[in-house]
Amino acid sequence: MRWVYLVVIILFVLATLIFAMQNRELVTMSFLSLQARAPLALLTVVVYLLGAITGGSLFGLLRRSYKGSRRIVGTR
Questions:
Q1: CB of 26 within 8 A of CB of 38?
Q2: Scanning 34, 61, 64, 66, which has its CA 20 to 30 A from the CA of 55?
Q3: Residue 7's pLDDT is what?
């Protein structure tokens, strides 16, 4: 099963890289009153990495919380 996860991750990374390489034009990103101009490829990679980091940490937090709640319930 570990190999299946590895293949899926590799496919997502490859698809993201292919998308990023084909979309190199500059885009303007606005958030509140801030604006930044950067290549779409760079923004795509940054958003992908931020999503991977936050998604992984959220999954870890939920797993730890679930295990902690099972221990508390199991001791009663």
A1: yes
A2: 34
A3: 92
**Block residue for tokens 């940054």:** 46
> How many angstroms separate the CA atoms of 63 and 72, rounded?
14
pLDDT tens digits along 27-62:
898 889 989 898 888 887 788 788 888 877 767 767
Residue (of 62, 61, 67, 21) closest to 44 by Cα position: 21
- Give every CB contact of residue 64 below 8 A, 6+ residues apart in sequence: none
Phi, psi of 75, deg, nearest 5: -85, -10
The predicted pLDDT at position 18 comes to 87
Show the tokens assigned to 15.
């698809």
